[in-house]
DNA sequence: AACTTATGACTAA
DNA sequence: TAGTCCTAAGTTG
């Protein structure tokens, strides 16, 4: 479920709330028990995200080599957080879509709550815990292994300075131009651009006016460059806002469609058959690689 | 209780 | 392209 914006927020949360602290690592569910034992008690060095991949670094006493916890949330993985009054993490990041309620006011010394549901990994410090459930990937990597995972990814629109990084922009444009597959498939290909998922695909292609069905090698460099800029802008906004919002206020109908502001939170995503917010043409939907694809056949050529 | 859905990605054929 | 994996919530019967 999460796209790159969520992963970068997650990395920032771990960096702020866990870095520099000694950390207990366990696997309440049991499936990560052996790996958890290898880093239990180590200190968190820091965390970062590349695309949809999260890396949390753990330093050990020499000669133990540093190890990275590598997590990919997949379609429905999530982290839940809880901690004392100085613990600034949100209640959850990732699925479930409806955030869990904040913990009730605590009194006295903070104590970690019991894990709820299937918790693959629990990271626990003296002021907060993070529980991971439902990841599609969760493993321990050496630094070399971490670098090779990152090397397989395309440019990340949320990497520091990405929006003004000409080389990253060119890598994206060249990557798409080199293939005959549909652009709609290419922007979801993590080796072409890292972090774009089903919502950013639909919305960025709409804003760029590019049909997702058009072959990559038949989209002009100019339009692909503009598409990269749009992806950078949308994802930076999502990271800041804490949720994916793509509709320019000038395009939002007033009063809101069917009285529901959420009905025009996106231009085309999940709006099959409803009028395009720009031109009124019914939004179209078709399956692409097993995912639902949405676009306006009139605005997107 | 069974079925459906979800912001993902891999493998086999 | 189909099947598989990971989990929880919502809908249907």
TrEMBL record:
Gene3D superfamilies attached to this UniProt entry: 1.10.8.50, MutM-like, N-terminal
UniProt domain FPG-type: residue ranges: 267-301
Keyword Membrane carried by entry: no
Protein EC: 4.2.99.18
Record's keyword terms, sorted: DNA damage, DNA repair, DNA-binding, Glycosidase, Hydrolase, Lyase, Metal-binding, Multifunctional enzyme, Zinc, Zinc-finger
InterPro entries xrefs: FPG_cat, FPG_N, H2TH_FPG, Ribosomal_uS13-like_H2TH, Znf_DNA_glyclase/AP_lyase
Domain of life: Bacteria
Family note: Belongs to the FPG family.
Name used for this protein in its record: DNA-(apurinic or apyrimidinic site) lyase
């Amino acid at each position: 479920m999460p796209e790159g914006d969520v992963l970068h927020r997650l990395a920032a949360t771990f960096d702020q709330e866990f870095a520099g602290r000694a950390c207990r690592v366990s696997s309440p569910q049991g499936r990560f028990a052996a790996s958890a034992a290898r880093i239990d008690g180590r200190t968190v060095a820091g965390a970062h995200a590349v695309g949809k991949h999260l890396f949390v670094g753990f330093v050990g006493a020499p000669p133990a080599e540093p190890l990275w916890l590598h997590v990919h949330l997949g379609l429905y993985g999530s982290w839940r957080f809880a901690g004392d009054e100085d613990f600034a993490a949100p209640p959850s990041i990732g699925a479930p879509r409806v955030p869990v309620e904040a913990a009730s006011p605590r009194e006295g010394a903070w104590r970690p709550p019991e894990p709820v549901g299937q918790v693959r990994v629990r990271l626990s410090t003296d002021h907060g815990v993070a529980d991971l459930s439902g990841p599609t990937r969760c493993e321990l990597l050496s630094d070399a292994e971490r670098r090779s995972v990152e090397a397989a990814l395309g440019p990340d629109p949320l990497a520091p300075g990405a929006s003004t990084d000409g080389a990253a922009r060119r890598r994206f444009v060249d990557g798409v131009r080199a293939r005959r597959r549909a652009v709609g498939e290419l922007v979801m290909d993590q080796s072409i651009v890292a972090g774009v998922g089903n919502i950013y695909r639909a919305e960025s292609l709409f804003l760029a006016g590019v049909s997702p069905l058009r072959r990559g090698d038949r989209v002009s460099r100019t339009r692909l460059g503009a598409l990269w800029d749009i992806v950078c802008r949308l994802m930076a906004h999502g990271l800041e806002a804490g949720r994916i919002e793509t509709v320019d206020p000038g395009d939002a109908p007033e009063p809101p469609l069917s009285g529901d502001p959420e009905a025009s939170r996106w231009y085309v995503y999940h709006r099959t058959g409803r009028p395009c917010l720009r031109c009124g043409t019914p939004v179209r939907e078709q399956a692409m690689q097993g995912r639902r694809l949405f676009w306006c056949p009139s605005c997107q050529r």
